[in-house]
Design goal:
about 375 residues, alpha/beta, Rossmann fold, 2 domains, eight-stranded mixed beta sheet, 14 helices, 8 strands, elongated, disordered N terminus
Length: about 375
């Protein structure tokens, strides 16, 4: 092979990253779209429902089929935009890849009280089947989740995000239909709503729920006078403090759960009910995806570890992630490609080769993985001939 040809062949690996930029070069003037509206018919609810769906974009053109966890969001009209933005930031290198890229499904509510609340009689009392005959939860289980999994490349890992009344519904599903989701995010949930009826009959259920391999994040804002101490709140038995007391008691109940899940709780004394969601979203992603957080591997980019140790560290991280999440969670193909390119462009050929071994082992049918691996093997062969 001529020196010029060898240079061109080896340079192709670095060009893989440039190809991502070139794909975006002709996009001037195009709309920025973070999601699409879908209308699906629900036999359970007897109506058509509007759903917003965000699917992550990928930079590399030849990736193997990419599968994603799915994040379901109540109150899509107000929460979808910020949740997608937070997830997008924290799942990229700009956000240190704290969480995986995810499909986000935002659910709109024609009548929020009907979807996220419970059926009551004319006096406000729960009907007999309010808790066990919840049509909206049935819609999620029997129609929405199957629709998403039939039409998108999903991983069997589902996250539920609920705020305020949506947080109450998330708590209800955790208590009565725990298996529907792998992780629950409840932001300042209205657990005392309906004159405390839900809480009176359901408060003990989170302790008994099977949370093995599941993650729960619970956030509480300050809904009394700013500066009120939590000890004062606990002592106060009026309806003014009920919202916060119920959340704190639920936190204690979840701490007692012995089934082996991961529970995270945070109180935001400087945030009111309306201001807490955005800051709590960040903390929720950081907490419930602690098993994924790729910051744990960032040291590899600058370390003196051997190529074998680099490979071992990557494999061990995702082995542990799979065990903790309860699903087979492979290292993302784009992540391994990025790491290979980084080591190659930094002159650490042996480390690039080691990471490419992980890449091809996990994605043997991927044109991208095969291309990256072959480029490196060709260069290795040329290096050996020169020796």
């Amino acid at each position: 092979m001529k020196p010029k040809d060898l240079f061109i062949t080896s340079f192709l690996l670095i060009v893989l990253i440039a190809s991502a930029a070139s794909q975006n070069a002709g996009n001037e003037g195009k709309d920025v779209v973070i999601g699409k509206t879908h209308i699906i018919h629900s036999d359970v609810l007897g109506e058509d429902r509007e759903i917003l769906i965000h699917v992550p974009s990928e930079d590399y053109p030849d990736l193997d089929t990419v599968h994603y966890p799915v994040l379901y969001v109540f109150d899509a009209s107000t929460e979808f935009l910020s949740v997608v933005a937070t997830m997008t930031r924290l799942s990229t290198s700009l956000g240190d890849q704290i969480c995986p890229k995810m499909i986000v499904v935002g659910i709109k509510h024609p009548d929020r009280g009907v979807d996220l609340g419970f059926q009551t009689d004319s006096t406000g009392k729960f009907l007999n089947n309010s808790l066990t005959g919840d049509k909206f939860t049935e819609f999620i289980e029997k129609e929405l989740q199957p629709y998403i999994e039939a039409n998108y490349n999903t991983l069997p890992y589902r996250v539920l995000f609920g705020y305020s009344l949506g947080g109450l519904k998330a708590a209800h599903i955790l208590a009565y239909k725990t298996s529907l989701f792998n992780a629950y995010v409840m932001i300042d949930p209205s657990l005392g709503h309906y004159d405390n009826q839900w809480y009176n009959v359901s408060s003990d259920k989170p302790e008994k729920a099977d949370l093995k391999n599941k993650s729960v994040f619970l956030a509480m804002a300050q809904t009394m006078k700013m500066g009120t101490d939590t000890n004062e709140i606990k002592k106060d038995k009026t309806t003014d403090s009920r919202h916060m007391r119920n959340i704190m008691e639920t936190a204690n109940t979840l701490r007692k759960n012995a089934s082996g899940g991961y529970f995270y709780w945070k109180y935001y004394p400087g945030e009111y009910h309306g201001s807490v969601p955005f800051i709590a979203e960040y903390d929720a992603f950081y907490s419930i995806f602690g098993w994924y957080n790729l910051q744990d591997l960032r040291y590899l980019f600058k370390s003196d570890d051997s190529p074998a140790d680099v490979r071992k560290a990557i494999e061990l991280h995702f082995k542990n992630a799979s065990e903790k999440s309860g699903i087979s969670f492979l290292p993302p193909e784009y992540y391994l490609t990025d790491m290979t390119v980084y080591f190659y462009s930094s002159g650490k050929f042996d480390k690039a080769l080691a990471v490419s071994e992980v890449l091809i082992a996990n994605y043997p049918n991927s044109p991208n993985a095969q291309k990256v691996r072959q480029i490196l093997l060709n260069e290795k062969e040329q290096k050996n001939k020169k020796q």
